[in-house]
Amino acid sequence: MFGKCCACFFLVLETMGFILSTGLCVCSCVPFSMASGGEEPPTPHRHTNRLAQERSPYLLQHAHNPVDWYPWGQEAFDKAKAEDKPIFLSGEFESFEDEEIGRILSDNFVCIKVDREERPDVDKVYMTFVQATSGGGGWPMSVWLTPDLKPFIGGTYFPPRDQARRPGLKTVLSRILEQWQNNRSALESSGQRIIAALRQGTAITAEPGAAVPLAPDVAQRCFQQLVQSYEEEYGGFRDAPKFPSPVNLMFLLSFYTVSRSSSEGAEALQMALHTLRMMALGGFHRYSTDSSWHVPHFEKMLYDQAQLAVAYITASQVSGETFFADVAKDILQYVSRDLSNKSGGFYSAEDADSVPASGGPEKQLLPDMVEGASGSTSLADIFMHHYGVKEQGNVAPEQDPHGELRGQNVLIVRYSPELTAAHFGVSVKRLGELLATARAKMAEVRKSRPRPHLDTKMLASWNGLMLSAYARVGSALGDEALLERAVQAANFLKEHLWDPSRQTMLRSCYRGDQMEVEQVSPPIPGFLDDYAFVICGLLDLYEATFQTSWLEWAEELQLRQDTLFWDSQGYGYFCSDLSDPTLPLSLKEDQDGAEPSANSVSAWNLLRLSHVTGRQEWVQRCQQLLTAFSERLSSVPIALPEMVRALMAQHHTLKQIVICGRKDAPDTASLVATVNSLFLPHKVLMLCDGASDSFLRSRLPSLSALCPPEDSGAARALVCQDFTCSLPLTDPLELRTLLHGCYC
Question: For strand 683-688 and strand 655-660, is the pairing parallel, antiparallel, or unpaired?
């Protein structure tokens, strides 16, 4: 039992980012028990199935179920056909610990587990079927398929046994078996009819005579829809649970840049900045269970961290406030420390659950008295006040329906530095030093505790998002260490997730037992988002480093993406390769959600690439893509805020900012830094130095007239539209003024 002046909490602050803990306590007078970090010896497993040979952490969790699981692949498909058994796809965890259910499944079905992050194509297709047949969707998903992979029954959660009006999995299985044996033809024909209807109902195509919708109207409608869903007190959109939704924030910041003088532009900026401030007080996880960003779902996803880092650095560029830049740096510091592989790749996530530890030596945390503070103030007093720590816990019962956090504290910044400093009679600068000391001590103690499970899967798409984050934040801050880390990430992608012999991106790779990078056999080919997000990251990396090799690879990847995924009849990109015979549907993602849709990012990529490669066919392809989604953009643009941003860029026409000068010269660096200090969503940035720009000059012959190769004069900048350019500028202040007024 802890003393009265101790308080226990579950999170350790790292400036603005959070790390999951398992019950640390701060005490000013009483010692407390700390975890030793010791682990119990592993117990032998009663069951082991084929998933034990997989690399996916999710699949490995089910390797010792009493179910004869197969991974998605040809071995399972062949078995289903040979034995003429229906396939059971995926499902929930608790039911598969049940021995009786395990026997029923293994004896009568071919059971397949899918990691939806490894195979988003499989998940998307069969979730679409579940939504159509059950009236709703969600995970865990359960679908029954014929041996030729046609779904005929689907649902979400089934408890092991019957509960009130909800049938248990055992009951469901017996009914499906009965129907399969006695009414199979009806099941199969019903499934075929549903797939045919879905094939028609999910089609996204450009209607004959359709045109790209008017960007100002679409942007205005998107803004109004976001206003209607905005929650004013704590920011964010809709009530709890609240998701970070960086795509919404990036739209609002872009909307502001073209509407600065209007009241709506000011409102958009206020909505974005207020949301970002409120989120930073509570930390970044997959979502918050309450409206105030206090109690999160304790899971940190790589795609969230990447997009939030970009959103915060963008807020800093727009507002000039260093607070937002500090948050962006803190996010990347966390990623570098806890989600990075030595090969240069990034891991997918830290899980929600952490195994508690017990026992260990007695320790005290933060007992030091603070000199100069009012009264008898300890470091613990200041920490607990600032982060809302209470002796009885700070989580309200309605925030904790399962009672898992009763008597515990989840840290959240409750007061501004100015208010906390005034409360204890210290300066703001001194307060910052004290809180930094407290956090460092907490972090050291946390290292002795078991960490949450780390998902060491490395996905090309999410690594592409994080590549963008390091490049964007590094260039905005002029931080060479961040830029070096971005280059490492790009090298990782090219070495481990690109197959040059087949000209194919690979979906994923994994950390091996000896910390080496491993692949599954056979490797999973990349999907549309793998190409689109990596291309975007490479374009950002070029603008941050001016290494044209990244542009060349981006062009190569875009050409390959066009070959694999482009719909030449209806326009837009399919999510997966049309040649895959295992999927009954070909789908196009039409929503920017936790991640932007790959079609939205592709629209941006096509525009940007067309301006640095001179390929005008990509301008036309971008217009065709936007036309395919015109109905969605016109009616519910809030579903595609990232695509609305691309539509705005297409409307305003990207500006080419050309810097002519030696790459390592101070005057060149000053002009580049000026560009990078601003948020310019409708621009591409190029450097012509006469030495390493041969790729650009070969694609854009007019560059040689703008920046003669032999020119060794002072660095200068030109702002061009279709290479009709401003007068060259050598003064960074004049360049800043020009850029600020050109809707770049």
Answer: parallel
Mean pLDDT of the chain, nearest integer: 87
Residue 518, strand partner residues:
510
Closest C-alpha among 294, 290, 288, 300 to residue 335: 300
SS3 call for 58:
helix
What pLDDT sits at residue 353?
53
The number of angstroms, rounded, from the C-alpha of 732 to the middle of its chain's C-alpha atoms is 35
Taken as a whole, the chain contains a residue count of 744
The string of DSSP letters for 699-735 reads: H-TTHHHHS-TT--S--EEEEEETTEEPPPB--HHHH
Q: Which residues of 140-151 are buried (b: 16+ CB within 10 A; e: fewer)?
A: ebbbbbbbebbb
Given a contact cutoff of 8 angstroms between Cβ atoms, the answer to whether 492 and 466 are in contact is no
Closest among 302, 313, 285, 310 to 336, alpha carbons compared: 302
CA separation (Å) from 168 to 98, 159, 392?
Answer: 12, 5, 39
Q: How does pLDDT run across 626-683, given as a tens digit for each residue?
A: 999 999 999 999 999 999 999 999 999 999 999 999 999 999 999 999 999 999 999 9
Side chain identity, residue 265: G
CB distance 657 to 686 below 8 Å: yes
Buried b / exposed e over 44-73, threshold 16 CB at 10 Å, is: eeebebbbeebbbbbbeebbbbbbbbbbbe
Q: Residue 167 and residue 621: Cα distance in Å, rounded?
A: 49
- Residue from 584, 593, 559, 588 nearest 575 by CA: 588
Q: Where are the alpha helices (DSSP H) in 320-395?
A: 322-338, 379-386
Beta strands per DSSP E along 146-249: 151-155
Q: Which amino acid is at 311?
A: A
Closest CA to 685 of 542, 471, 547: 542
Residue 522: cis peptide before it, omega within 30 degrees of 0: yes
The 3-class SS string of 665-684 reads CHHHHHHHHHHHCCCCCCEE
* Residue 466 half-sphere exposure toward CB, CA atoms < 13 A: 33
CA distance 559 to 402: 51
| Cβ contact 332:304 at 8 Å | no
- Going by C-beta distance under 8 Å and a sequence separation of 6 or more, which residues neighbour residue 396? none
Cα 637 to Cα 66, 587, 600, 728: the distances in Å are: 47, 19, 12, 39
Q: Which distant-in-sequence residues (6+ apart) come within 8 Å of 325 by Cβ?
A: 312, 313, 316, 473, 476, 477
**10 has a pLDDT exceeding 50:** no
Count of C-beta atoms within a 10 Å radius of residue 288: 25
User: What tokens appear for 479 in the block?
Assistant: 């931080």
The percent of the chain in helix, strand and coil, each rounded to the nearest 5, is: 45, 15, 40
What do you get for the CA distance between the two ends of the chain, in Å?
61
Task: Tell me the percentage of the chain whose pLDDT exceeds 70.
Answer: 91
Secondary structure class of 230 (helix, strand, coil) = strand
> pLDDT of 458-512, one tens digit each?
999 999 999 999 999 999 999 999 999 999 999 999 999 999 999 999 999 999 8
Instruction: Please list the residues that pair with 454 across neighbouring strands.
Output: 350
pTM of this structure: 0.90
For helices 460-477 and 480-496, angle between their N-to-C axes, nearest 10 degrees: 160
Q: Which residues contact 171 (CB under 8 A, 6 or more apart)?
A: 161, 162
Q: 549: closest CA among 501, 476, 478, 494?
A: 494
Complete DSSP assignment for 512-560: -TTS-EE--SSPPBP-HHHHHHHHHHHHHHHHHH--HHHHHHHHHHHHH
Give the amino acid at 135.
G
Residue 459 CA: distances (Å) to CA of 62, 87, 117, 301, 509: 21, 27, 8, 12, 7
The partner residues of 456 in beta bridges, in order of sequence, read none
Out of 131-140, 208-217, 261-270, 598-607, least confident range: 131-140
